[in-house]
Design goal:
Blueprint: E1 2-4, E2 9-11, E3 14-15, E4 20-22, E5 25-27, E6 30-39, E7 44-46, E8 49-56, E9 59-61, E10 64-72, E11 77-84, E12 87-89, E13 94-99, H1 104-123
Parallel strand pairs: 1-4, 2-5, 3-6, 4-6, 5-7, 6-8, 7-9, 8-10, 9-11, 10-11, 10-12, 11-13
Length: 124
């Protein structure tokens, strides 16, 4: 598991190659489709997150696509669109946005296409 610490600010995209916990701030896309991404209590993501499992304890403003589950914990503040087959919103959480489970398969296909495209571009 990797951790982006409380004092870390990332401006740009983050690609997780294992489970990832974000304690700092990310201004960009977080991608780890086969892994779990946790936004810790001190974490703040301004951008999209695509992962297997997404757990939000901190703050996120963006689209979340999870192939398994999005878990929004009691202290979390979430704004944006959620696309997942399973959603948990704990009492005390703040959520402002829309949930679209019916678009999960399409969103996963688009994300897979984009990853293949990035790999091809990186190889040239």
């Amino acid at each position: 598991m990797s951790i982006l610490g409380k004092t870390v600010l990332v401006k740009g995209d983050v690609r997780a190659l294992g489970d990832l916990t974000i304690e700092g701030r990310v201004e960009g896309t977080v991608t780890g489709p086969d892994y779990a991404v946790t936004i810790a209590e001190s974490g703040d993501v301004q951008g999209d997150v695509h992962a297997r499992d997404i757990t939000v304890i901190g703050r996120i403003d963006g689209q979340m696509v999870a192939s398994e589950v999005v878990d929004i914990r009691a202290a979390a503040n979430v704004s944006g669109r959620i696309i997942t087959g399973r959603l948990i919103i704990n009492e005390g959480a703040t959520f402002n946005g829309q949930v679209e489970p019916q678009h999960l398969e399409a969103a996963l296909r688009v994300a897979s296409f984009n990853r293949r495209k990035e790999r091809k571009e990186g190889a040239t």
